[in-house]
Structures are given as C-alpha cells and as structure tokens.
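Continuing the batch. This is chain 6 of the set; chains 1 through 5 are on the previous pages. Same settings as before, nothing changed between runs. Recording input and output for traceability.
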Amino acid sequence: MSGSGTGAEAGAQTARSHALAVLRVRSRALAVALLPAAVAVILLVGGSTGHLPGGGWDLARRLLTPVAVLVLLVAAGVALVVARARPAMSPTVPIAEGAAPDLYRMVRDLADRLDVPAPSAIALTPDCDSWLEDRTHPAHGPPPAEEHGDIAGAGRSARVGSAAAPVLVIGSPFLWWMRVGELRAVLAPVVAGTGPSAHPDIAAARRFVRGLDAAVAVTSAPRRGPVVRGVLAAVGRVTRLLLRGCRGHAAEMERGVAAAAAERAQTVDYGLRIVAQEQVGLAYAGWDRLLTRVALPAWRMGRWPSRLNAGVVAALTELSRRDRLAEGFASRLGERPACDLLEEPGAVDEAASLLAARLFHGGPAETGPDWSPVHWGDYPEEVVDRKWRTDAARLHRVLDALHVPPTPGEPPTSDAPTLSRVLAHLATPPTHGEAHAPAQAAPSTEPARPAAPGLLTAPASPTDRGSSTEPAPPTAPAPPTDPGSSTAPAPPTDRASSELRSSGDSATPSTEPSPPTAPGSPAGPTPPTPSTRPTEPAPSTGPALSSTPAPDDEDLAAATPRSAALAARLSAELAREGTAAVAPSVSGAGTDGAPDPLPLRDDEALPLFPLQPPRTGRELLADHIAAMVCCAAMDTAGATPGLDWLDGPTLLLGGARATDPSPQILTLIEDGDPAALRLWLTRQGIRPEKPVRLV
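Output for chain 6:
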C-alpha cells in the first residue's frame, strides 16, 4: 500500500510539473503579445509627461504604436479562434443513469475505493478501448455533471470547486464479452485517472492543448474567400508554433497521469487483473474479425447487423469450441456478463452497432430504404445470397457490354446467365486485337480483400486495420514483469494466439510496446489510459469510396488478356455504381439548390476508420467468379448460403461447408485454363450450363 501510494504520488508530481511547463508556454506567448503594447504605453506616457522628449523618442512612438496595435490584434484573433474552436469529441452512445443504474453504481463504488472523483457520465464506443474524455467545452452542450449530479458528487472532497469530472467511455465489446469482475478490473486504472485530472494545473494544461489542437483543425478547413484563408493561415502558423512548443511536455504529462492512475488502481481487484488483460486481447481479436469478415459484407449491401456485440460473444464462443485448449473460455460464460448491468442491452447493442457502421464504413445515422438493420438469423438469406447474386448480375452485365456470346450450344438470342458463359469466355484464346489492347480500368470503389482462407468467405482481417491514408491502430504495450504493477490490459496470451491461428486468422494484436499517445490521437485498441481522447480528424470532402486508386498494371500482368479486360470493366462498373451512390452526399446541395454550409459537427466526416484498402482488379474478378459459382451451386446443386462467425459468408453443400475453389479460380484467371474449376464443379455436383437466378 505504501509503495503504491508513493508511486502514485511520484507520477502525479511528474504530471503536474509538465503541466506547469505547458502553462509556461502559454504565459510566454501572452508576454510576447503584450510586450510591444507595454513598451508603447511607456513611450506614450513618457512623452505626455515630458520625461522622454526629442525627435528620436517621437519617431520610436510613431513606429512602435502601430506595431503594438497590430500584435494585439493578431493575439486577439488567435485567442478568439482558440476559444471558439470546438475540441474534437469522440462519437459515442450515451448511457443515462436510468438505463444502467447497476453500471453507474459499480463505477461509483470503484471511485470510492480508489478515493478519486467519479466520472460525470458514462458512454459506449464501438471499439475495444476505454478512456476518460473531457466534455466541458460549451460547444459540447450542458456539462454532464448537471445531468448526473449524484454521480459527479461521489468521492472525496478534492473535487469540490473543481471542473466537472470527465466522461467515462467504455468499449462496448467489453460489456458483452467480459464478466462483471473483469470489467471492474479493466476500468480501475481508467477511473483512477479522474484524480490527477481534477488538479487545476493539469486541467488547465489539457484545456490549452485541446484548444490549440481544435484551432489547428479550424485553420486547416477549406475556405472560399482569399482574405479569410490568409487570416486563418496566419493564425494556423501561430497555433502550430505553440502546439510544437508544448507537445513534448503534454505527452510527458499524460504519461505521468497514466502512471499515477495505474499505481493507484493496484489496490483494486489484484487477482482479476491478469484474467482481465487476457480477455481484452481476445475481445479485440474477435471484434476485429467480426467487423472485417461478417459486418463489412453486410455494410456493402446496405444492411447493418443490429447485434454486433452479441456477435462477438458468438464468434469467441465458436473459437473456444474449435480449440481443444480453450475449455476455460467456455466455462467462464456461466458467470454474470457485464451487459447485465444495462437495463436494455438489446437497445444499447443496436445503437452501438449503428455507430460502428458509421465509424468503420460511413453509413448514415438513421435507417432507411437503402440502409436497414439485419438480424443474425436473416443474415444468410438477406446478405449472403443477395451479395452473390448481385455480383453475378454485375458480371453478366459486363459480359453483355463486351458482346460476349451466350453459352456454346445455345441459340444466339438466349440471354440466360450461366456459369459456362464465363468459363468459355475466359478460356477462349483472345483475338489479335484483344491480345494487344491495353486494359483501361476506372477506380474501384470497394475495399480490398487481402489473402483469405477462401474467396467464398468474407475478407481476412488485416494485421493493422488501415492503409497508407489512414492511421494504423496503436499497439498495446507489453505486460510488465510483475502482473500487479500495472492495470493496463495485455494482448492475447499464447493460448489466445493459438486459437486465432487454429481458425485461419493470422491477425493478432501486436505485443510490441509503444509510448502513450498524445492528446488528439485517434482511438484504437490501446489499453485504457486516463487521458482525454478526442478522436475525430479534420472533416473530409466525402466518403472514402470517392477516392480509391485504379488497379495497377502489375496486378493484371499475371492475368490473361481477356481476364485483364474483364477485370478492368468490372472496376469501371463498380466506380460508376459508387459514384452514383455517393453523389448526393458529395454535392452538398440543399433543397433550394444552394450549397449547404460546412458541417458543424466533427462526427459527420465519416468513416473515421475504413477497414480495408481498395481491392485490385484481379481480386474483383475472382470475387465475381466465386459469386457466380455460388449462385450455380445454390440453383443447380441444392446448396444454401451460410454464416460462419469467424469467416463470414460461406457456401453450404449438404449442410457442410464446401471446399474452397480459390486455387481453381485463380488458375482460370491467370492461365485461362478452366479444367481444374470444371473438375471441382463436377465433384460438387454443380452444373455450369444451367441458368441461374440473378438479382
């Protein structure tokens, strides 16, 4: 106990010293702004009283007075922009105390045990992370303490007279996968961060850094008028200079706050800390896999699964059943889940699932004809079957545009879509004109599908969720030698990693240590820290679908000329469909035809975290051929669409999962040889010459 208190006090002292260093940067900036005015006042007073006579002093007064006025105007402009800029606020699902009284009671008791102020409110984020967020800026609405005065008033007297306590943001997958005791152990270091946050110097330093960060975002936003652009450019240079001056001290301040909170949290649920760390890593792996393999195909079809968090439990339970060493994960399901702390977990799960679709895919905020929820029981029929038939219909539209004849042996007037038509076209040797015609591809509009166990399944989970245009999620720090010396959750253990490998997924959270992120960095699967976590970047001009690169020549170099031409036309077709889908949102025109003003809320620049980079032309062609194979299997061999919690859409033949035809499809695309694929079709009882039903 004494050691823990000494460590917490040392971390708090470090945080306060660096907070004072940040405030000194502010004080120096104010002194620089007031210095010319002070000298000008001295010169003017000295001239009026006769103490500074002479032509030299008169010249100094005439030169310095306008300079002082100009510097004051610039300083006032910078201060006005910083004061009026809206700090970034993470998109979350607010949880009122009436909707989760047991959860609020647990957080209040946890704050009392830690002897720190309790958070003013609780919100959920659709990600595996937890943090404290200051929402006391006037632009964020009424302070949370006004809505939950009894929660904000719990704890020690140190919070009396201080600012409203920050909001506790909890990762929604934690509530559904973790048990109540595990959740309390995970939240202990986060709630402990309210103690250092209540210190006046730390709170003032954080407000100053957040204001500068928000001002930089304001000055970086596009503006039309040249005068406004020039003024904001000057303000932006000043704010960036100030931000660079205090960046290092701000980062060290947050490290000190995190260290103090971790030391204080050691006194709470010491025995559950190791188990909770293991479950955090497992929940993140299951959540990432569910998003990329199960939710993403549905989002592309205009449907959003309404029970994503329940799907995490099903996916991780299935993972435990497949691994012989995972009986412990299944046995713990008999304990009380943390979602029981909510009065209506189904409604909360639905709200979090819709927010996840917005953050990771950019869907609208409300349901509509083209954006409706789907339950897990309806997923195979309404998502998987529709996806395959839509892709197959697009493939045949492109074949019609290329004037590809129908299946050999059928009359020329027959327009029945068959798999044989695709095989015959890609297997026919190209003519002289086709062999030398370059393939021109338009931009693809769908995220890429990395190497996966099969083309009949949803895309594999990438190692880091991002591309060159998006920030990769921060890695989790390695667990300390002494499990009790830190409460930060660790990545999956060897057993959890072996579970992921046993199911075909090579993407596991990294175990390399990384330094804590400074305020303003995007939220990711990092361990909970007590620092404020604004997560939204500067607004973009439209969804990510509008700026995807075209398939490169290297990707299509390994394909036959006809495969390359077909892939290019598919990319062009997808580009046209994507442009038509996002045109209303990109145009920004109101009902009267006038352009709408810039958005007032940061969370309209969605998606914040696109899941995958664009697919290449060869991957698009392989996906469309696989969809045609699945349609033929369903219509001629009695196959059915299915959902695998770990791999997404699957094809079921005779109630069992069909073998993967990916190697045979790639042989057709790269070599123009359909023999291997035809043999696979024959073994499965699929008749490629029979017409299939399209959407």
